[in-house]
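Why do we care about 3D structure at all? Because function follows from shape, and shape follows, mostly, from sequence. That is the central idea of this module. The next example makes it concrete: a single protein chain, its amino acid sequence, and then its structure expressed as tokens.
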Amino acid sequence: MLEKYLLQMPQKVFGGRNALENIKSIVSDKNRIALFTDKGIQATGLISEITRHLGEKEITVFDELPSEPTCDQAQIIADEFKKKEFDLLIAAGGGSVMDIAKLASVMAGSDYRIRDLLEDQQIMKKGIETLMIPTTAGTGSEATPNSIVAVPEKELKVGIVNSSMIADYVILDDVMIRKLPRKIAAATGLDALAHAIECFTSNKSNLFSDTFALEALDLILNNIEPACDDPEAFDAKNAMLIGAFYAGVAITASGTTAVHALSYPLGGKYHIPHGIANAMLLVPVMKFNEPACRNRFARVYDRVVRNGKASGTDGEKSEWIIRRLEEIVKHLDIPGSLKEYGVGSKDIDQLVEAGMKVQRLLQNNARTLKAEDAKKLYSEIL
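And the structure:
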């Protein structure tokens, strides 16, 4: 656990019933609005929930945003965005939309390129205020200073991290996730679960991150299944939205670990959705980490289990948490094999080589993970 730590958060976070109404006050002194979203969100009609609060403002919509973007795809959007001057950038979407929007926000008025940021992340500066409105309860991108992009020649996803990308405003309104398809709700929800439990067991965990990670685990573990299964489970969906945000805050104060490190090559080369890749690796990595995290898993049990055995041993509580993770992954119909995505035994060594390069996250892992360990973990989900 870190002895010195830092908490960075968006300046203002609006949540609760009809939280979208706060858009009016946010844009009161702004005239030219850039709205980042994607075609899928446009098709649901959710964007009207936002635009009806913008009144007569000049709105330019950018909706050609790809999912799981490469650094070059994000650059194309940023270049288009830079052709006009705006007073505010609103991102309404999942992690990909918000990540591209955050990169665009630090490109405004600058000469550097996204590939420059891959080499030196300290050169970026915020160029425009941002408002993040998540449409999934998962990535936590609305809370973090991170943007994840794929680098094609490396066949790997890379995190670009700088406090300049922390949002100025965030709105958490469960109306934005009520129509979320079960498959997407499951993948993104499990991504949030991975964030929370990885941050809580990270070598960089601390009093700040633990506060948010534990609350996130309580909200997510006790609500993820009804939130995904029942379209009318609005309380559970709201709990997931808050839990995903808290897990994002935990990332800023701590950091993810081997689950995310090993998932990056799966997304970078095989284009497996980020949440699915994390969900497939979640239980194998937590089982691997269990000897080093037993007391931490026991603390999670004590926090999240209602009417449980308070007198159980740390080992029993730890076993219960891992079994619960297995139950949730199975219940939410996460694919059980990488073969469904065209990954074979011949690809394992290359995955290991790429995954082991993500030392930024692997050094956070409570149990040292070597190449032979990574090979076993990938083989478990083959």
